[in-house]
Amino acid sequence: MSAGEISFREESGQWVVNEVSNQSTGYCPDVSSWPAVAEALDQAGIVRPSGFTHEVVFRRCPSCRQLNIVREEDFVCVFCDEALPWEWNVDRPGR
After folding, report:
1. Cβ neighbours of residue 34 closer than 8 Å, sequence gap 6 or more
2. Does residue 63 share a domain with residue 32?
3. pLDDT, tens only, 39-63
4. Which of 25, 34, 43, 64 is deepest in the core (most CB within 10 A)?
5. Which residues constitute the domain of residue 51?
6. Does residue 51 sit in the same domain as residue 37?
7. What is the pLDDT of residue 18?
8. Are residues 47 and 62 in the same domain?
């Protein structure tokens, strides 16, 4: 459903999410996976933010098949300079 990093703090005897991201270079979840994270935190009774506090945008290059992290909305492959798709495509196998 999602993956990433999360940190907690205790506030008035209750666990609260301090930071949460989708940063997982193994699973590379899209930022649209937030609802799965929110649901899990809600079911656990943990106070959470309204979305990822740090969003990581992953894309696979259609030309060289390398995995990229898109920075500053620059959808260009860092390996071969080809344009990266706007839609999440990491589930397509690499080389």
Report:
1. 2, 22, 51, 52
2. no
3. 999 999 999 999 999 999 999 999 9
4. 34
5. 5-55
6. yes
7. 97
8. no
